[in-house]
Amino acid sequence: MAALYELVGEGNRNPLRGAHTVMEEMLEIVGLESLADVGETGDPEAERLAAEREEARAAGDFERADRLRDEIAALGFVVRDTADGPQLVPR
């Protein structure tokens, strides 16, 4: 876990070639492989809610954004807000 934490920390400071692959392998070893899942969820409803949530956040309607996040969670996804935008990850 300490090595994984260090890899993530270093990757946040400097792009590391091949780090994502190594991180996926490390997460699989500790049973947390779903943390590396990013991109399309395959769930159009969750994707729609995520887009609405992003619109609400951009408009400053954080109460609505929080409600939408809760609806997304009820569908089995966690919203991760990243520098590249929000990502839906299965729980």
Task: Provide key terms for this protein.
91 residues, alpha+beta, two-stranded antiparallel ribbon, 4 helices, 56% helix, elongated
What's the average pLDDT? 83
Radius of gyration: 15 Å
What portion of residues is helical? Answer: 55-70%
Uncertain regions: pLDDT < 50 for 5+ in a row? none
Distance between the termini: 19 Å
Spell out the helices and strands N to C: HHHHEE
Gross geometry:
elongated
What class do helices, strands and sheet pairing give?
Answer: alpha+beta
Task: Please describe the topology of this protein.
Blueprint: H1 2-13, H2 19-29, H3 44-58, H4 62-74, E1 77-82, E2 85-90
Antiparallel strand pairs: 1-2
Helix pairs in contact: 1-2, 3-4
Task: Please characterize this protein's 3D structure.
The protein has 91 residues and is of the alpha+beta class. It is built from four helices and two strands, in the order ααααββ. The protein has a two-stranded antiparallel ribbon. Helix 3 packs antiparallel against helix 4. The longest helix is centred in the middle third of the chain and has 15 residues, at 44-58. The model has no long low-confidence stretch (mean pLDDT 83).
